[in-house]
């Protein structure tokens, strides 16, 4: 069974639109998100365009700042300093990856934690790890949990979640979120021994490695819930195609629920970005 991320994201946006309306009516706050894009990577341009469009659709203010590929680190830091001090900006997102001459860690550390709607700042990852209130939680991991719950119901306790991938953006934070849901969590990665048999133990399998169609049917326990975070562009039969980290056709036959690519986790990432911006405006606006 397909887990429909497009529909889940649309449902979430309906809720968020209402929250924006009541924030405006009750507190006079219109949540604002500014997206900063450095350079002209085509994939990043598409993401940024979608983020800006959807932000406006739920009634929020959205700005886009485009900087040249050869923008200096100092210039980007100065832009962020302005946004940090702008009270109409509740969320700041710097689209990654950045050009090589700019230090990503330094940029992320410069964004005010209260406006870090990506949830990448050490203050937010620390708060998430400690289970503290007020953490802005990375968007894709939030989307993964929402989709797992959409299929399995709200109570995930006791389920074995196997996460393939240990990145700061997805693998590590999504592991913490499933742990908070009382799952038993295993983090697998490129050095894990006998990865297929490890994955076969999962009730919930999250693939976040960036390897096209790596997860096959015999890696999946019958009936398991499979969340595919991968977005890989490949060429097949002379055409460009978008595929996940899971071999969809193969795994669909055994999984109880599976997110497609596109139309699974991707739309949820953007919806959760809007959610985080509203959260930031509510708490810190
Ligand atoms: N590039 C790809 N995904 C993301 C994301 O979630 N946030 C940011 N800032 N950049 C990205």
Automatic annotation (TrEMBL):
The keyword Hydrolase applies. Keywords: Amino-acid biosynthesis, Histidine biosynthesis, Hydrolase, Methionine biosynthesis, Multifunctional enzyme, NADP, One-carbon metabolism, Oxidoreductase, Purine biosynthesis. It comes from the Bacteria. InterPro entries: Aminoacid_DH-like_N_sf, NAD(P)-bd_dom_sf, THF_DH/CycHdrlase, THF_DH/CycHdrlase_cat_dom, THF_DH/CycHdrlase_CS, THF_DH/CycHdrlase_NAD-bd_dom. Residues 3-118 form the Tetrahydrofolate dehydrogenase/cyclohydrolase catalytic domain. Signal peptide: none annotated. Coiled coil: none annotated. Pfam families: THF_DHG_CYH, THF_DHG_CYH_C. NADP(+) binds at residues 165-167, 231. Gene3D superfamilies: Leucine Dehydrogenase, chain A, domain 1, NAD(P)-binding Rossmann-like Domain. PROSITE patterns: THF_DHG_CYH_2. Its EC number is 1.5.1.5, 3.5.4.9. Pathway: One-carbon metabolism; tetrahydrofolate interconversion. CDD domains: NAD_bind_m-THF_DH_Cyclohyd. It catalyses: (6R)-5,10-methenyltetrahydrofolate + H2O = (6R)-10-formyltetrahydrofolate + H(+); (6R)-5,10-methylene-5,6,7,8-tetrahydrofolate + NADP(+) = (6R)-5,10-methenyltetrahydrofolate + NADPH. Residues 138-282 form the Tetrahydrofolate dehydrogenase/cyclohydrolase NAD(P)-binding domain. Catalyzes the oxidation of 5,10-methylenetetrahydrofolate to 5,10-methenyltetrahydrofolate and then the hydrolysis of 5,10-methenyltetrahydrofolate to 10-formyltetrahydrofolate. Homodimer. Belongs to the tetrahydrofolate dehydrogenase/cyclohydrolase family. This is Bifunctional protein FolD.
């Amino acid at each position: 069974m397909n887990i429909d991320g497009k529909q889940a994201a649309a449902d979430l946006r309906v809720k968020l639109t209402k929250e924006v309306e009541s924030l405006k009516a009750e507190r006079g706050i219109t949540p604002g998100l500014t997206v900063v894009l450095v350079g002209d990577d085509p994939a990043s341009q598409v993401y940024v365009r979608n983020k800006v469009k959807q932000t406006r659709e739920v009634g929020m203010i959205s700005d886009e700042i485009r900087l040249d590929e050869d923008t200096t680190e100092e210039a980007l830091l100065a832009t962020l300093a302005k946004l940090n001090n702008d009270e109409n900006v509740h969320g700041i997102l710097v689209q990654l990856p950045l050009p090589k001459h700019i230090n990503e860690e330094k940029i992320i550390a410069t964004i005010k934690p209260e406006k870090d709607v990506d949830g990448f700042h050490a203050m937010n990852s620390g708060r998430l790890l400690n289970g503290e209130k007020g953490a802005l939680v990375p968007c894709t991991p939030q989307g993964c949990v929402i989709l797992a719950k959409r299929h399995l119901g709200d109570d995930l306790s006791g389920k074995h979640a196997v996460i393939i991938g240990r990145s700061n953006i997805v693998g590590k934070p999504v592991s913490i979120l499933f742990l908070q849901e009382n799952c038993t969590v295993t983090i697998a990665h490129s050095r894990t021994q006998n990865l297929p048999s490890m994955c076969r133990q999962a009730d919930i399998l999250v693939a976040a490695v960036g390897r096209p169609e790596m997860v096959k049917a015999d890696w999946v326990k019958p009936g398991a819930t499979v969340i595919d975070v991968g977005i890989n562009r490949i060429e097949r039969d002379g055409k460009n195609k978008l595929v996940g980290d899971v071999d969809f056709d193969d795994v669909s036959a055994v999984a109880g629920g599976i997110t497609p690519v596109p139309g699974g986790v991707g739309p949820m990432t953007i919806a959760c970005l809007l959610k985080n911006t509203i959260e930031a405006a509510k708490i810190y606006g």
